[in-house]
Give the backbone structure.
Amino acid sequence: MLLSFPNWIIHIFSSLEWLAASLLLVRYGRLIGRRSVTILGLSMLPHWAGSLSVLAYHITTDTVPFLLDLSEIINLFGSISLLLATVSILKETKKAAPAGFMALMGAIMISGKPQSWLGEDVFDAILQLSSVVYISFLIVLLVIWRRNRDLFSGLTVGDSGLFLSLFRLPSSACIWQPRSGATRPSPMTTFCMALQRVC
């Protein structure tokens, strides 16, 4: 067990918090009669299962790398299900369809040189793709909150993991500074520029 005691506490309670949030969101969706919100709560469960896989990896003193790879695959599935659930909620709002927004997310995903962010093996690529999909989910969640502030509180939206830190990036992090030989912005810079346009 390579983790310190405080790190174990953080891992365990983060996993339990995610499960509790999922179950509360399912209950909330049933109480307000919104099936799409219930589905969003259920879509959180794959990430919880991925956290259990990471805990199992650490219990084995980091000696079974398959558990970490399994976690990455589960989290990719979880990120996709969260994104699909939020897009479903977004479609229910009475504003314009999210087609342009989704095209923007697709452009962000393919910007830059794939080798620069896909990593060395397929599991690195899965992890990176999962992160991009999860960030897209967070942005769609923000758009939903901006369109219908009665559905979720700002605190609920803000507590969706890394969300607050993501949107409090210093403006200098979003300024494109070309790398040697670069002809276009990095994926992070492209993401920041798109985020500024959406928000």
